[in-house]
Design a protein that fits this description.
One of its GO terms (cellular component) is plasma membrane. By secondary structure, the chain is of the alpha/beta class. The chain has 22 helices and 10 strands. The termini are far apart.
Length: 588
């Protein structure tokens, strides 16, 4: 209950920004509900007057009846205009509030550490940003005004019932505690299934995203049947939780309605006796029975919305769980980058581990001078990518310091540290836009001339001009309409345009053919000119000219030196090199 109240309070922090529209919507709803509460009394007046005319053997007073009908028509127009205005205003308030919530989620995602994405399924994160926000939006639009209307409607109906007859009103009140008890029991049983349903939906989104991304691989290995079975299992879990949550919450309305029907029958019988005894008039009995229905109607509305509200409650908790995640911390009193960066990088006694019980890097030391090309080699799992992650501050060191031009990177803002770097990865990333805009991503204020100049420097201009529409060609969502090598060259052009001080190349040529590898190497040489560069490579042929080669194994630098020095040493690097080129040299 405390968590639910806290979630509602935080939701109000978004709604209150548009409180003028919010309270106007409530005012319209209150006005319409109060007017609607007067209808039973007005409708009962002609009945009472006709009954009196007949009892007194008088002519039917049609003038009176017509006046009441005109008044009912006017009030009906006011009532419907009030409901229309409240719905229109509340929809506007909710949509703007949820826009702000989505914006905050997006900003939060950008501030979360890389470790969060390493430990959470991306499909589930996507589900929280889309499905959960949509669930909350629908609940606010459907239920907020209805709950307000139900509260006012029930209060008005109870007031009018007591005004007509206190005994019948007290009898009718029995349905309220009975309905509350029924609702509380059912909600306590169904809420866990609504939470499980939203979690299962996130799992399903993750599974679908993962398999759609690797669809070609699934087809290649003939894994369609296994994929279908796994999907069916995940989908069945969602279906099972969905059925249980809907079934249990669906019991609420018929049980609540049952109490209302019982009260209605009792009131009708006792009311008839009171009319016979002339304790109340026939018109008042008619009005009272309508008020019983007016009391029942809002209770029925709330029970109908039970599933929507419970689903939204589960979604709200999932959304705020993301918003409450710990962000990347920055130290206080941070230093600023100097106007000129030379690009010297120093690792001083650096230690790091993903798991405190399993140290990965311990007491790592090396120094890179400005403009040097540093190659990092070693077997899979040696710590090469981890070293780059530490350099970029995707993770912070647990001991020691990484310095750029003598400045400890932990004393600088993360965005300032990352602004110094350019990266070309093995998995080239392009987004759904034109080739021109994909290159311009490296420098958003770059002119078209600068973009073309970067493409020429990266040896990709010729490829682009042979494409349909050239620089204006749209890259599709999976970037499947350009080859892997072209994607690499486009990302190199993007990096060249950003003019980074320090360059990172993470196995940028490992997945292309020899001809494209030569083109990419030429492009990379232009990018690396005058810049400090870190190159992770499995193909040792690409790093022979490196100023410094770091050989890593199990998180430690076991050898370092130039290509010739390491070969002459006859250690781990020589074995690694000969395993790739020894046989080829012997055959020559």
């Amino acid at each position: 209950m405390v968590k639910t109240f806290g979630s509602l309070k935080r939701l109000w922090s978004y709604l209150r920004l548009y409180k003028v529209g919010f309270f106007l919507a409530i005012l319209c709803e209150v006005t319409a509900t109060i007017v609607n509460a007067l209808f039973p009394v007005l409708v009962g007046l002609p009945t009472t007057r006709i009954a009196q005319n007949i009892a007194n053997k008088e002519t039917i007073d049609f003038d009176y009846i017509v006046k009441i009908l005109i008044l009912i028509t006017i009030m009906s127009v006011i009532c419907n205009l009030g409901y229309f205005g409240s719905n229109a205003l509340m929809s506007r308030v909710v949509q703007r509030s949820m826009r702000d919530l989505r914006r905050d989620i997006s900003h939060k995602i950008n501030r979360l550490p890389v470790s969060y994405f390493d430990s959470h399924q991306r499909g589930d994160i996507l589900s929280r940003m889309t499905n959960d926000v949509d669930s909350l939006t629908n609940a606010l639009q459907q239920s907020l005004l209805r709950i307000i209307s139900a509260t006012i409607g029930m209060t008005s109906a109870i007031f009018m019932m007591f005004k007509i007859n206190t005994k019948l009103a007290l009898l009718s009140m029995l349905m309220i505690p009975a309905s509350v008890i029924i609702s509380k029991v059912i909600v306590s049983k169904s809420q866990k299934y609504f939470k499980a349903q939203q979690d299962a939906l996130g799992d399903l989104n993750s599974y679908v995203q993962e398999n759609m991304t690797g669809f070609a691989v699934l087809k290649l290995f003939g894994r369609e049947k296994e994929n279908y079975e796994n999907f069916k299992t995940t989908s069945h879990k969602l279906s099972e939780y969905g059925f249980k949550s809907s079934f249990i919450s669906g019991l609420m309305m018929p049980l609540v309605q049952l109490t209302s029907y019982l009260v209605y029958i009792i009131v009708a019988v006792l009311g008839g006796l009171l009319v016979i005894n002339k304790t109340i008039t026939l018109g008042n009995l008619q009005a009272f029975i309508q008020y019983v229905w007016q009391l029942n109607q809002p209770m029925g509305q709330v029970t109908q919305l039970s599933a929507v509200i419970q689903g939204a409650s589960a979604s709200t908790k999932r959304i705020f769980t993301v918003l409450d995640e710990q962000e990347e911390p920055d130290a206080a009193n941070l230093a600023s980058l100097p106007a000129t960066i030379q690009g010297a990088v120093t690792f001083e006694h650096v230690s790091f581990s993903y798991d405190p019980a399993k140290p990965l890097i311990e007491d790592l030391n090396f120094e890179v001078k400005p403009g040097q090309m540093v190659a990092i080699v070693g077997p899979t799992g040696a710590g090469k990518t981890t070293l780059i992650n530490l350099l970029m501050r995707f993770y912070d060191v647990t001991g020691g310091a990484i310095k750029i031009d003598g400045l400890d990177t932990k004393q600088l803002k993360r965005e300032e540290v990352r602004s110094l770097f350019g990266m070309v990865l093995q998995d080239a990333w392009l987004y759904h836009d034109t080739i021109m805009e994909n290159i311009r991503f490296g420098k958003l204020d770059a002119t078209d001339y600068e973009v073309v100049d970067a493409a020429k420097a990266a040896n990709v201009d010729h490829f682009i001009r042979t494409m349909p529409e050239g620089y204006k060609m749209m890259i599709d969502e999976e970037a499947d309409n350009v080859s892997l090598g072209q994607k690499q060259l486009l990302t190199i052009a993007r990096t060249l345009l950003s003019d980074p001080k320090i360059l990172i190349l993470d196995e940028a040529t490992s997945s292309v053919d020899t001809r494209l590898e030569l083109l990419i190497q030429k492009a990379m040489q232009k990018v690396m000119e005058g810049r400090t560069s870190f190159v992770i490579a499995h193909r040792l042929s690409t790093i022979r000219e490196a100023d410094l080669i770091l050989v890593m194994d199990q998180g430690q630098i076991i050898e370092q030196g130039t290509h010739e020095q390491l070969l002459a040493r006859g250690g781990f690097y020589e074995k690694l090199y000969n395993s790739q080129f020894g046989e080829a040299e012997q055959s020559d």
